[in-house]
Amino acid sequence: MNPNVFDDPRITAVGLLFEVHAGLSARFAAQLDEHGLSPVEFEVLTRLARSPGAQLRMTDLAAQTSLSTSGVTRVVDRMERDGLLTRRACPSDRRSSYAVVTPAGLSRLDGCLPGHLQIIEDWFTGQLDPSALDAVLDGLRRVRDAVNPCATAGSGDDPEEGTGPC
């Protein structure tokens, strides 16, 4: 084996990405726990709150999160029992349903967002000048779109929505 392979900048890039993710995830998890939310529940609430009508089809929610379709169903079931979400039948497709944020879910999200944003500022965006942040955001979007082309499904950002595999 070539010992220089470990100096490959591709390995360094992915290693740094994993280290950053782990460090931020630990800080986020502790802060979210103070508000009675798991990281995945926060992700679901945030995705829904940022979507048109504060709702997404369950399949689109799965595509936008780190969850499988069955995983989304379990999380939405739990969050619905806790009053954070509700389900609404899709009027045009009886096989589909929407997850919709409730006022209680928005209130919980509002309560934890100031601390969440402070962590982002202190440990991520605040470490970068504006041009570096723009470059990071551009790069992350390109990589995200390559590895998860359905990540924006149902968000209203895709003019071709409904015409592709998502």
Low-confidence stretches: 159-164
Kindly report the CATH topology.
Arc Repressor Mutant, subunit A
Assign the CATH superfamily: Winged helix-like DNA-binding domain superfamily/Winged helix DNA-binding domain
* Separation of the first and last Cα atoms: 41 Å
At CATH's second level, what is the architecture? Answer: Orthogonal Bundle
Structural class: mainly alpha
Q: Give the H and E element order.
A: HHEHHEEHH
Reported for the largest beta sheet, the result is: 3 strands, antiparallel
- How would you state the average pLDDT, rounded? 90
- Based on CA atoms alone, the radius of gyration comes out at 18 Å
CATH class: Mainly Alpha
Number of domains: 1
Domain HTH marR-type: 10-145
Pfam family, one: MarR_2
GO molecular function, one term: DNA-binding transcription factor activity
Protein name: HTH marR-type domain-containing protein
Describe the structure.
With 166 residues, this protein is mostly helical. It has one domain (9-147): Arc Repressor Mutant, subunit A, CATH 1.10.10.10. 57% of the residues lie in helices and 8% in strands. The chain is built from six helices and three strands. It has helices at residues 9-33, 39-49, 58-64, 69-81, 103-123, 130-147, and strands at 55-57, 85-89, 97-101. Strand 2 (85-89) and strand 3 form a beta hairpin. Helix 1 crosses helix 5 (103-123) and helix 3 (58-64) crosses helix 4 (69-81). Residues 159-164 have low confidence and may be disordered.
